[in-house]
Amino acid sequence: MKAQVEVKFSQLVQQQRQFFSTGNTKDISFRIAQLQLLKQAILENKQAIANAVKADLKKPDFEIYLTELYVVKEIDYTIKHIKSWAKAKKVATPLEQFPSSAIIYPEPLGVVLIISPWNYPFNLMILPLIGAIAAGNCAILKPSEISLHTSKVLADIFQKNFDPAYIALVEGGVETSQQLLKEKFDRIFFTGGTNVGKIVMEAAAKHLTPVTLELGGKSPCIVDADTQIEIAARRIAWGKFINAGQTCIAPDYLLVNHNIKKDLLDAIKKCIQEFYGDDPAKSPDYTRIINKKHFSRLAAFLKDGEIIVGGETDAENNYIAPTVIDNVSLDAPIMQEEIFGPILPVITYNDLTEAISIVNDRPKPLALYFFSKNKDRQERILRETSSGGVCINDTIMHIGIPELPFGGVGDSGIGAYHGKTSFDTFSHQKSVLKNSFLVDMKLRYAPYQGKLNLLKRILGLK
Ligand code: NAD
């Protein structure tokens, strides 16, 4: 059975290589037509997609549009800019290279593999695919087996609309992923956890395949005393509890200045009540935990520290209330791994140096949030910490700007995408020098006798 699957995947890759070698995907009008087809397929299936995401995560419609179906906007943005991104770009040449010219040609990589996670199961498959299509690649897609309903709808969309020799979606679990990873690709784009990211990179290394790893981590949210407490609280509560905290860039833990701690926590409590009512279990706007395994992992964190908001659970419905936990020790289990759920631990600091060192003692996060009106402190945070991205006085919203590359640094990932960065991620920038036969300076050719002084002068080494 395993051997059969391997043959199947190597045949699929082979078919895609043949399709790629026809050169069709190099044509910009072909890429635009495929992006339009993708958009059309999403629009025609938007209800089925929404139903599937709802079945997987009980996500409210508003969030399905905001965080999943919005990808059609990225398609429009890409179609608008693709011609200028794909254009060969002339660069300056030094005088001694006269009369040659130098040009960068973006070219597609070939056949790429995209592996996606379950937390935004539609968006995180389609968003990288937009870049892969725009850059002129063939692609094999492997959605998460955990968000099964969305995986099925995605499979249906691709089977009906795309030739598998061009874009193929392969459903399956870890085993399928592992079998696919044995094949040689021209790029692997992986979104998921840091540990699996290491497995993907190891498999890719065997073929010297470049990887983009969109990973996770503990994204801190630091709140300075000089802030607008009410707005800060609202933006933090929204960023943390949207999708029930199952967001790679959710504020993972709160670092709050001791002077405003009480006021901020009171304000966050009020926001949770405003968003989800007295009993969030009854709110139509609150998502559930994806499965029992993650429910149990998260429920175990509720033993750490002192619960000041929420804490209620319902195992049968994979429900964990929006929860805030105070007096959490830095050694507690909840501070050892990415939470990826609706639990916000609170740590108090006395001065910013202390907060910065707590952040810098941990692996570099995917996002960092800092709330402060003080410009010097904002600059200090930017200078003294490293993270994939930063929002000053907000959470999450940086991913909504296509001009900002989205990706991690250190343990939170390798490479980036969104907007033009997606196009670049799936392209090779081919450097080309074009010379003519008009002039042929003899300086570079042997014999070198009598030429060294002139060379030194050109190089500025005399
Ligand atoms: P995961 O790493 O468990 O799974 C992701 C994908 O990898 C799935 O398709 C799965 O089938 C496959 N996979 C799992 N184990 C594998 C193995 N041993 N070998 C090969 N493939 C394997 O991640 P998840 O639980 O689906 O998602 C949660 C993680 O993803 C969190 O850490 C989160 O921060 C991260 N994430 C990151 C981003 C980002 O953009 N940086 C976005 C969403 C989620």
UniProtKB/TrEMBL annotation:
The active site lies at E214, C248
UniProt keyword annotations, A-Z:
NAD, Oxidoreductase
Task: List the Pfam families hit by this protein, alphabetically.
Answer: Aldedh
Output the InterPro entries linked to this UniProt entry: Ald_DH/histidinol_DH, Ald_DH_C, Ald_DH_CS_CYS, Ald_DH_CS_GLU, Ald_DH_N, Aldehyde_DH_dom, Aldehyde_DH_NAD(P)
Q: Which GO terms describe its molecular function?
A: aldehyde dehydrogenase (NAD+) activity
UniProt domain Aldehyde dehydrogenase: residue ranges: 12-432
GO biological process assignments: aldehyde metabolic process
Presence of keyword Chaperone = no
Q: Is Lipid biosynthesis given among the entry's keywords? A: no
Q: GO CC terms on record?
A: cytoplasm
Q: Which family does it belong to?
A: Belongs to the aldehyde dehydrogenase family.
Q: What is this protein called?
A: Aldehyde dehydrogenase
Organism in which the protein naturally occurs: Aerosakkonema funiforme FACHB-1375
